[in-house]
Design a protein that fits this description.
Layout: E1 2-7, H1 13-21, E2 26-31, H2 42-45, E3 55-58, E4 61-64, H3 66-77, H4 90-120, H5 127-146, H6 160-173, H7 181-191, H8 194-203
Parallel strand pairs: 1-2
Antiparallel strand pairs: 1-3, 3-4
Helix pairs in contact: 1-8, 4-5, 4-6, 6-7
Pfam family, one: GST_C_3
InterPro entries: Glutathione-S-Trfase_C-like, Glutathione-S-Trfase_C_sf, Glutathione_S-Trfase, Glutathione_S-Trfase_N, GST_C, Thioredoxin-like_sf
Protein name: Glutathione S-transferase
């Protein structure tokens, strides 16, 4: 059985969602942040020295990094390829993997910088203009890719949507979605999925 180590208020809720989409039996271990630093406490660091989440255990395998966990779980359990393509069409497979890696590889860093400057209450003369420009660049790109389609790769929900939805939801929390009605609608569609609602009920509420 898969064990998911889930740190409250963070990206691992999207791994809970993935497990619910796959309809897997899994054990959910919930951890809480230090109220002063908002960082992981010693109990999660005992699982993995970085104290980050998500972390999954599958037998002897201990695995971190959101998009790698997504790829692993889909490769192992999505044997009918409902949420990820096989390698039969290499171009389709490559495009899927590009969008799987893109959220953590490119979008997260400027959002993190924006979040930190907002928490500080002071615009930084170098960091703030950089993060604002990068956020505008990336979210225009995501909106263009989405177009009038329901999901990031077209008509069907896929593994690539977990990470994209995480970035869009983070942007929403930072008040950055007002200029992107299509992304607001996309976020609503993702949140309305029954598996997402089950994940929230199990891991947040």
């Amino acid at each position: 059985m898969i064990t998911l180590h889930h740190l409250r208020i963070g990206r691992s809720i999207f791994t809970v969602w993935l497990l619910e989409e796959l309809a897997l039996d899994y054990e959910l271990k919930v951890y809480h942040r230090d109220p002063d630093t908002m960082r992981a406490q010693a109990d999660l660091k005992a699982v993995h020295p970085l104290g980050k989440s998500p972390v999954i255990e599958d037998g002897p395998l201990l695995l971190t990094e959101s998009n790698v966990i997504t790829a692993y779980l889909l490769e192992k359990f999505d044997t009918e390829h409902k949420l990820h393509p096989d390698r039969g069409d290499l171009a389709v497979w490559a495009q899927y993997n590009q969008w799987l890696a893109y959220p953590e590889g490119s979008v997260f860093a400027p959002l993190l910088l924006k979040m930190l400057t907002l928490r500080s209450g002071v615009d930084h003369p170098v960091i703030s203009p950089f993060s604002d420009a990068e956020i505008a660049l990336h979210f225009a790109h995501i909106a263009d890719q989405l177009g009038d389609r329901p999901y990031i790769l077209g008509q069907e929900f896929s593994g690539a949507d977990f990470g994209i939805c995480y970035m869009v939801s983070m942007a929403e929390r930072l008040g950055l979605l007002t200029s992107y009605p299509s992304l607001q609608a996309y976020l609503g569609r993702c949140r309305a999925r029954p598996a997402f609602e089950r994940a929230i009920a199990k891991a947040v509420e």
